[in-house]
Design goal:
21% strand, six-stranded antiparallel sheet
Length: 384
Amino acid sequence: MSSSFWSCRSGSTTDRTRRALRLENIRIANFRNHSLLEFEPGPSITVIHGRNGTGKTSLLEAVHFCALTRGFSGNADRECLAFGSDHFSIKARFVSDRNSTTEVRVLYTSEKEKQIFVNEQEITSFSRHIGTIPCVTFTPPELSIVTGSPSERRKFIDSAICQHDRRYMADLIQYRRVLQQRNALLAGGMDHSSGLEGLEIWTQQLSSLAASIVLMRRDFISRFSIMFREIYSWFPDGQEPSIEYHCSLGDNHSGETGTEELSSLFNERYRQLRKQEIHRGQTLAGPHRDDLRFFNDGHEIRKFSSQGQQRGYLVAMKLTLNRYLFELLGERPVTLLDDLYSELDGEVEEMITGSLASCGQVLITSTEMKSGKGVIPFSIERNI
């Protein structure tokens, strides 16, 4: 079993492959089970090891906060407070091979809630920070991307695109605002003509935004799938992975379509659904109802694969995302892999660890100390 496919390299020059963003140091206080912790990872692979419950995942989550302004699970920020504390703080310094430095400070208090400072300047819109620190994560609960509801898969694709495309993020934010207004109008009833006129205005806006979002999602899947097949090719028996995007317009409209045509199709679809939407008080079509489906040799992995296979599929997706962001940004993202080695046999574990050396800075948690070329171990228990 060759390990070369697992490399995050993409055929670029050696210098470009090595270019990476990396965490230089981080200091966290009163965050989950850490009253105070300082951490300086290595430039390549750092394995954070220790017993369960010692705060390994919390350390990765603190890095995630600095990159994506939120924790792993989507829980309320106050749930990250250490027991008995009314505030937490995270301060991190990221350096780039492009000779730039970014300092991020996250403060949370019961009174002011969350504040984020980038190079000492407070940011008032957290969404504007997304993409400043490109970051790829794998956590065991994220298996729901493969096995869970469509909303989990939409979160995956939205997060991936938002890290490199600010137009997509802007359209997505505006789409959610318009959707909320349209749903409020539908829920309030349509007993007079002014209500129908207002619905038409929101529908036109929603159709245009929906078309833009769907086209960008399709473009992402097209490019991502090519890289994913290459990275996943190590699986035995010649398995061929594939990803399908299912639009709420139906499979008849899954081909290449321009923005104006797709917008018209959405507008027509809303016209067809008007009675149902008024009856149910909600918008029944659009990107917020789309889904991704994952396959192995034509078999849907959610239905026909073991948990171990599903886990391997998701890990391969996350490594593909590392390469995808690198291709677009020209710089490796920081990669956070929580409990990576669980359910992996020794051969696969060794192969993955060796190949991660070309993926930029990678932080991995494990209950056991790991070694290997370029691997730096960090004992969480000796540093708390």
